[in-house]
User: Fold these one by one.
Assistant:
Number 1:
Amino acid sequence: MALSRAAARGGLWRLGPSALSPPRERMQPQLALGLSRADAGGWGRRSQVRSLSSRAASRALVAAVVAAARWVNTRYEQYLERSFPRFYILHSTFKTGIQALFLEVKEILRIKSKMSQQRLSTQQLPYREMERLRQFRRDVLKAIPIGIIAIPPFANFLVIVLMYFFPRQLLIRQFWTPKQQLEFLDAYDCIRRGWYPAVLRSLALAARALPEPQPRELLQQLCAQVQGGARPHLGQLLAVRGLFSGSLLALNRLQVDHVRALSQVLFLTPHLPAFFLRHRLRSHVLEIRHLDRALLHLGPGQLSEEELRAACYLRGLNSTHLGQAECRAWLEQWLRLSCELQASEASLLAHSMVLLSLNYSQPPE
């Protein structure tokens, strides 16, 4: 045993230190691998620095381009304002309208996403969101004809000409100047008020055919009072509410001419068959009724002046030339009536757009 150990030690001594160390052929790949990793780490850091610097340079370039574009646009608008003031008004109105429309679409998408996530119907939305959806739907319907006209090639020039000469008929509200907004609202109200006498005549004729004498006399007295220039009380309207649900004055039993006149009051086309006219009229009146309940939950006092005037205008009152206090008093009266009525009494709500707004400048009797 001792001899074997000595022989082993002697053998190791004869082999030399190379036997105790790994071969050079094994060390070279390991060293190369370590060096390659070090080089890769350094190259990665350098590439990351280059990437960051390139991003910073690209951002600076984009910021410089945006600043230059804004400067050019500002100089261009100043030139237009000095040399072509009328065209500048159209240009600025169009620019502001595009921005407002973009924000409107963004808000509508947010509301739609909220309805989808929370599984809400339109009637469950707050007042402002419900009103936004209603107005946006009407804007889209109004923009459909001009979109169809613009489909053929080179039709854009025709569209621009039509939009210039017929802004009220073709442009939506975002592209109206403040002066045009007042003019166009007055023009639409003039068209609407032109149908008020026809509605009252049709209502008086329908009242004569009612079988019950006492309600018939109350309704005839109410029609004569409004036709004479007086403004009715809320109690007078509620006293005849039963006549508008199951009798000849219900929406589904009105004469066709009567329905057409009411459709014009709500800015609905009268050129449809009688069934569609009645269905559209009822759906729009019930939509206003849902809005009224949401507005009552919000509180009329929470509305801004612009929202207040728009709410009155939708319900039949031309609020463009009335004071804020007058608009608020009229809207509160309307809400008291609307929230008292049932869905089956939608006909009275439609007629109240005429009965309450025709002589509002006159004192009540």
Note: Residues 90 and 164 are 9 Å apart (CA to CA).
Number 2:
Amino acid sequence: MKQTLTELMRMSRICRMVLATCLGSFILVIFYFQIMRRNSFVVEGCCRKGSRNALQELYNPTQSEFSGQAALHQGRRDQVADTCRAHSATSRKRRVLTPGDLKHLVVDEEHELIYCYVPKVACTNWKRVMMVLTGHGKYSDPMEIPSNEAHVPSNLKTLNQYSIAEINHRLKNYLKFLFVREPFERLVSAYRNKFTLKYNSSFHKRFGTRIVRRYRKNATQDALVNGADVKFKEFAEYLADPATQRDGPLNEHWQTVYQLCHPCHIHYDLVGKYETLEEDANYVLQLAGVGDALRFPSYAKSTRTTDAMTAQFFSNISTHQQIELYQLYKLDFLMFNYSIPSYLRLD
């Protein structure tokens, strides 16, 4: 009798353990599906990777609507290559790139993309998009990411953080792209943003005081201390001054694209343009297989620096300064097929 009772108690414990195990498994299954439903963007949209990567889709499109885009970007690649060959003495002064040369190349491992960001060419929105692509579901809407957070270096991984073998593998197998803009529009946009807005006091202190000290006669003490009222003419003089070149590389906001992204050393598969920003950007996202879930943010056209605005700024500087600035940005004009602006006085 005692043995039978013991056996029954043992069987009861086993039944309770089995029941608890089944119940726990059931709860885990429910929890799993709740998580997946909540993060459906990750599963169904942003981070799903197909059998073909973006590089393969660019060069061998499976969708007929991509064929026209592929031809357009082939022409842009040819333009860059032709310019590099024609101006090899200038464009290939250095044969080997250093890790510092790769700090503008943002890497997306999941979708096998490399993006070279160029300030004043929608780079804030592109960084937001890259944070969505690489965030593993942490972000879903690029415009919910504050602009200052998009520029925090630790939020994105850049190519200079890899070993040489890893760098070479990614340069060979990932789709590499950049976005460019008419060089003088980009330059005036940088000037307006960094020297005419009060909140950019760090640029006023770092560059404005230096520019005022060098190029303004009878500058006031306030201008020498704060550098908050730099004129475009003074900024142009600063850029064209050989002493500026000797100081070191230009700041990234007005550095040339060919010095930031090194298109004569790195073969970019796709060159997008600011003038066709949304079309080109969404083409990249389609190639990466995320175009149905993620769209490139629209930008505020009301505050954009236009050609007419740029012409007005250039009308206030001398012919000599215009020629010097064109020489500084000449390779960007040629590489990316921008015509010489009609307002320039080059003869």
Note: Residues 23-45 have pLDDT under 50 and may be disordered.
Number 3:
Amino acid sequence: MSSKHQSTGPKVKDHQPSAHESLPLPEANAEAIQFLSNLNQEELQMLLFSETLAMVSDTGEPQGELTIEAQRGKYKDEFGDLSHCLLVHAFSRGFMDKMLCGNSVLGYLSWDLHIMEQHTQEFIKFHILPMERKMSLMKQNDQLAMTRSVKEGEDVKTKTTFFPWRSTQGFVSEAANLLLLRMMAWRQLVPNNAQFLALDTEGKLCHSTYQVDVFIVEQTVHSTEGIPTSCQFYLLSDGHLAKRIQMGSPGCCMITKMPVLRDKDEIQPGPVFEKQPLVWEDDMELYSKFVDRKEELRLSHASYLRQHPEAQALVSDFLLFLLLRQPADAITFAAEYFGPFAKRNPPTPSLRSSDRLNPFRSLDPERPTD
């Protein structure tokens, strides 16, 4: 892991790598990796919807609102290639102890919830020293680049850290976490023994676990340096968020209007039509049509032969030659007999052979076969 540090404003100290930064990066366990690998696009498409929750204080007074929206999107990578992705946008704005605060998340995810790009922002308008934190995550070749900026008053500190891409297997970003919670509610299943990866408040990789109780999911981010942070999510059966409580916060977010729950579409099997035997001779209507059509064709054929007497003479002549020659291959004999009458073929001597096996080859040995 490599990093660079920039800072503007008064009294900024140069960044010194700590002993912790030299420690090996944490890894997600097999249960977490398997859970993410078993996600499928059909289920994820059922989780693409928007919802809005009201932020209320402990006494029930409205303080703001939280909106979460997930939809299909398009993402252009660093090479200019355009691909389909999942677009997650969440933002909240309200008051905490009469101080304006808010945060936003904008993330582009692949269909297996791998991070492509994410931007987060959080601010609290303290009366004395306003605070604002920004973080950007972006996949760059075989690395995940994280740029973190902290602004306290006029002091701004910026730090960029690079994580090897192989070390982010099982990583759940903030945007991916919102879809992962919906998936757990949809499946009614939480991998209790799974240890995912997440970023703590200091921008360091750490483990993240999920627990469930009557489908109240509690996520705990286990920071390696600071205290763990926990958040409880009350989820409906289709993934809608009914309530969110952040431990230590004086308020919570809760649903104000019951949404229409989404059911999984059940594909009904198509109708099967068994083949029924058709005995048309016993059907008076079909048999009558058959007799009428048969008579119609007989009269039509007889009329044609009366108008073209040469046709019967031609057939009689062919039968006479056939019986006189008695060739072993009657088909080839017929092809050669009627060949000179074709408009596309040049005139050639008739009956050059009565024993050729291919009735469709050229009669002229110098001409190639078509």
Note: Helices lie at 30-37, 41-45, 174-187, 284-307, 309-325, 330-338.
Number 4:
Amino acid sequence: MENGNHKEIPEDANEHCPGTQSEDAGKSDACAGCPNQEACASAPKGPDPDLVVIAERMATVKHKILVLSGKGGVGKSTFSAQLSFALAAMDFQVGLLDIDICGPSIPKMLGLEGQEIHQSNLGWSPVFVDSIGVMSIGFMLPDPDDAVIWRGPRKNGIIKQFLKDVYWGELDFLVVDAPPGTSDEHISIVQFLKETGIDGAIIVTTPQQVSLIDVRKEVSFCKKVGIKVLGVVENMSGLCQPVTDFKYLKQSKNGDQEDVTRWAMEIMKEKAPELLDLVACSEVFDSSAGGAAKMCRDMGVPFLGKVPLDPKLCKAAEEGKSCFSGEECGVSAPALSAIIAKLLKDNTMT
């Protein structure tokens, strides 16, 4: 939906559309035959009074960051969760809002499965972990296996509730984990938050072209709605893990596999112990076309860096833990730390 001359006009509208907020919406000659005619005619006109309430709620939030992706399965929610953990560890007050209505994975990635939202006289209270306030529809489902089968208006309604009815309190950062693509949820969060000031969006991708094709659409979406692209993160940028973490197999001609890890480790210890300190890396996705870095140069947006596919990071996400505590995520944690430091420095958000 474009906003030109203060008129909200659906992308599939007829020529000379008066705008959805006009008194003539759905009633003028230009509306005849438009697929939006009935909805526009019956919709309430004028400014949305809830936007005033949202602005009041967001007045205590310094920075608002959207985390987007063109495709699902690129690690966007993992990045949102670890970004929140990292900011909280830097003594920032952090809120994490999950607006992936049909696939809410943030409760799992923060170790908050089974928690419930509580009501206070100030509104809904976020669920807290490590001083991070978290809100997700995942806390509202009677059964975690329940499917959320909602049309656009109902999704928009719950997102609006999360913004106007949740008492976030004083926050340095509100991280918004959005679903993949550029659909209802994305349009809604931009419309609801735009007047309160969105710092921008971080876009997460994997290196191969099939992902970058969709990321280009995500960048275009941000430019169309006036949201700054804070940077692109190339996630799963090669499988990297210590040599000692690998399982070694001997494969026969008929496809049978024999575990020879113990034998291989003994050989390395005896013949080449220096190999045991190495990290082995392998390209999982084809990045021969230049990956996210080249795409960023082509589209004129910042490239924040690469995060390797680290099994230890995957395990931390499954267990709802920070990858920055301890030294287990020795491959991915430094990469994430460098990206977050660059994000804060380049956008003066410290």
Note: The first strand starts at residue 2 and ends at 4.
